[in-house]
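User: I want to check something. If I give you two sequences, will you return the structure for each one separately, not as a complex?

Assistant: Yes, each is folded on its own. Here is the first sequence with its structure:
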Amino acid sequence: MPAHVFAPPAVPCLPVVGTDAMFPVRRVFCIGRNYAAHAVEMGGDPDREPPFFFQKNPDNLDPSGRFPYPPESSDVHHEVELAVMLGSGGTDIPVDEAMRHVWGYAVALDMTRRDRQAEAKKAGRPWEVGKAFEHSAPVGPVHPASATGHPQAGRIALTVNGELRQEGDLNQMIWKVPEMIAVLSRHFALAAGDVILTGTPAGVGAVVRGDVMEAHIDGLGALRVEVV
């Protein structure tokens, strides 16, 4: 077997709550503007237009509880989201079979260099510079769906330094989790380890060094992240 020219990087993994097990991450898909109020907030149409997705890198998922403020930006925003972890996958998955591929859930943040994203949008360029930077997806431990069930409703919220910034309900998603899985599977061969960030409610805003963010989703506990 040919030798590697250097040691392969470790597979990014996330802790599973209450165990020593780890969830290995393969890819990270994110849906844009999936809550009507946030779509309006970002200048979009709240009607049920076709979903669109972008990606983060697997090692952008960071369970450390610390968010290093990124370079090349002066306007970094928080976006609290439900993360869906797949335990299996496939192509052309029917909506009514989608949930059997979900292994678990977690509280996550889609941190965004909003100024760099705005520049990319204006120029018609990809969003990676604003979305897929290092440590851009703080995340809590993974909760197995076998223990939590599949949440279809429940409070999702985020505070910064104790002040409520974002609040909504999972039932306000425009595109529900089974639909996201079905649509993604028409474009990609989904597989175990794929993660889907499911969108954020209204109230996104900037953070600065020293801020403390606390994200909460009913049934999944809280995620505390310090901006450093």
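And separately, the second sequence with its own structure:
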Amino acid sequence: MTIGLVFAICLVAANLRTGLTGVGTLLPAIERDSGLSSSWGGLLSTLPLLTFAATSPLVARASHRFGSARLLVAALGALAVGTVVRSLPSVVCLFAGTVILSAAIAFGNVLLPALIRRSVPAHRIHGVSALYVTVMGVTAAVSSGISAPLAHTLPGSWHTALAWGVAFTVAAFLFWLPRIRGDRPQASSGATHSPVPWRSRVAWQVSVFMGLQSLAFYTAVAWLPSILIHHGTSSTAAGWMLFYYQLIALAASGLLPLLTRGRLDQRWTAAGASVLMAGGFAVLLSAPALSVLACTLLGLGGGVCLVLALTFQSERAAGPGEAAALAGMAQSVGYLVAAAGPLLLGILHDSANGWALPLVVLVVLSIAMAGAGYGAGRDRQVSHPAR
């Protein structure tokens, strides 16, 4: 493993959320200028998660046929195209570009654990995964923060602001392009394709853990300010609490490798982090005035769970092919569950006329995540779909 490889992985990570997180802050301007209703605006926000779920299972077979590095370079090219298309002054281009760039990001999401499994020593997978999660989180937060100011200062308003992240995409594309020379597709060497391990208990535990932590994160991002405002917090303070939650999650994801160095058995770490998230939701339910404590617990648990969910996709696979297949399954299931989360919580809120029932559901799901995390955290590998 070289510093150049780690930098290349971080460049890809910088592209996996940047094009998505700025949309929320720009959505009011997009709806106003494009004439979109709130329903269509909601679809625009959910479309990436649905695209992730639909695209992720296709990546392993494509990687086997064309090679991981080659496919990643193609995905980065498609990401650049999709980003530009999305910024064009057309509602059709807005949605079409979103689908293209989301599909490209889905390929990157699945390919990165496989590339890490192939190129990084086993004892360093955890650290490299935490590093790329940190880079992904930092660039996502920066995108959320600067998109609106860019829309006010750059010509083209929100159209231009939607496209600023293409600079990261071009840099990653140019950095990975020379690496395709030594990338030999597994199909050309006669290696068999690793099927998606739908019949593996460990694979399902990894997938359910991925899905529930994604649901908790996207639900918190979507509804945490509304929950706090409902209990009397100002909109400005609620926004800062959301920022604080993400900041704590970033700190937790960065510190995790220092606390678990050299340990492949992560059962109690995954279960404990899930319980922390359950505690955070429980505090919001029972003592909403303690929002700082709630967001601290949610951030600590969420940051650890995200790193573990991505690490398991590399560590629980016997090789790069199996890692791509496992990552495809975990992210397909995960993002499908995540896409349903904010919608389900909104429906529960409307039907119960309050946040008590949705928060009870989140506490229960976090406890279920602890069970899935305990199973996924065992030092075992998915090497055959029948295992």
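Because they were folded independently, the notes below concern the second chain alone. The chain has a mean pLDDT of 85. The two ends are 31 Å apart (CA to CA).
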